[in-house]
Amino acid sequence: MTSTAPLPTKAATRRNNVATQRETQIKKRYTARLRRGDLLETIVYFSVAIVLALFLADGGATYFLSLKDVTTGIGIVTGLVGSDLMLIMLILAARIPVIDRTFGHDKALAVHRKLGKPVLYLILAHMFLLMVGYGIAQGLNPIAEAIDMIVNQQDMSIAFIATGLLIAVVVTSLVIVRRKLSYEFWYIVHLLSYGAILLALPHQFTQGMMFAEGTWARWYWMALYVGALASITIFRVIIPVASSLRHDLRVSSVDIEAPGVVSVTMTGRDINALRAQGGQFFTWRFWAPNMWWDAHPYSLSAHPDGRSLRITVRDLGKGSARLLSLKPGTRVSFEGPYGIFTDASRTTKKAVFVGAGIGITPIRAILESSDLDPLEATVILRGSDAQDVYLWQETYDLCVEKSASLRVLVGHRPKGVNTWLSAEAYSKGESLLTLAPQIKNSDLYICGPTPWTDLVVRDAKRLGLHDHQIHAERFDF
Ligand SMILES: Cc1cc2nc3c(=O)[nH]c(=O)nc-3n(C[C@H](O)[C@H](O)[C@H](O)COP(=O)(O)OP(=O)(O)OC[C@H]3O[C@@H](n4cnc5c(N)ncnc54)[C@H](O)[C@@H]3O)c2cc1C
Questions:
Q1: Model pTM?
Q2: Pocket around ligand 1: residues whose beta carbon is below 6 Å from it?
Q3: pLDDT averaged over the chain?
Q4: Closest residue to atom 17 of ligand 1, CA basis
Q5: I need a labelling partner for 356 at 20 to 30 A (CA). Which of 258, 333, 394, 452 fits?
């Protein structure tokens, strides 16, 4: 006996066409983002190449013709490349929308951080090599040469102070040191990097060849300095202040979700114009007596409905604990929206969302805002007990509405096993693959404590997921 498959109905064919179109759209958006990323990366390499080309065009090659000038030549090159990369670091931290939309704020900051040490080494090499190179020319040892520079050469004393500030900024940013410092102390020291850049500027006019009149280098460096400092001023100061004034956000309600966890809803003018997406975050400042001086990043916990924005916060420290006593009517200013922990980073139609504890906030919001067909999504929630699965009812309702599978794993992890699963799930042989069988063809969104997130990422990679499929929101920069 033979059997034939039933012919597809018109409705089924239409559904398939819509699904294919959506897949094509997602792929197109992803390819466009990749191309933008490649272009931006190329610009960074290109900027270093331009710096070297301008140095050579302005006669830099002569330093490498005799042995006695080589040290000075390398010293100048390290200074030029170091300054170029330092300005690129500023641009990466400026929260320029195209950079945020392409890489995400966290990745831009990761590259910013990665550049910190190399930039410091280049600037230190610049200083040391010039002390040696100029010292050889003048018959002085490097220390005597440094003293001569500080005392007799215009703007060199402040250039040395600038290097000192740069050392302080990089050292306080080293992971091991930063863990011991409060965020506020680190932030204030970090602001000194602007001081370092401004103090280093005059010696580049009077001593260096970066701004020599009548050269192309002058125009290149002026454009880079003005571009970097203007980006910071525009995107980190002017736009946030203007946007906060325009939208005039006020706290409209503060609802207790669980002990130590509150949802704060804010209403304001013309919220749609912010074009915020579920899964994005803002840096919020609440204008209450004991809070206004302290801004914190919190993700949206609901997709914006055009009238209000909502965050859900757990009291993980002094700043977040103060939100429990927030009063309706409080004025709110903000920076954002930021981040691509949203539909914008999807590479395929299917999605798996894994959230733990307060990490549910962006997961719930992205689930709400995502364009998902029935059975395309799986949501996995983790909590050490049932109370720890915040926003549970809302997430459950959303899963029903979207026909998404929902798995909840509560309880502590098994002793002595390095896993993100609960002891119960682990003993039953559950894994990412059993919980979400479609995971290999899905985008995976993860948010939870950092060590826990790392374990989910590890398991996803073991299953063969590629980096571009894995999107992790970490609640620390
Ligand atoms: C992108 C992002 C989204 C977040 N979303 C949420 C959320 O939806 N719900 C939630 O409860 N928490 C969220 N957090 C975490 C929240 O911002 C921190 O818990 C809060 O800032 C801690 O501040 P604190 O004063 O309570 O604790 P502290 O004891 O002062 O700090 C605890 C930790 O938070 C870091 N931190 C403090 N202030 C800042 C800051 N302004 N920027 C960056 N890191 C800081 C500190 O380095 C430290 O590691 C998010 C964090 C980030 C980076």
A1: 0.89
A2: 183, 281, 295-299, 311-314, 316-320, 358, 361, 475-477
A3: 92
A4: 297
A5: 333
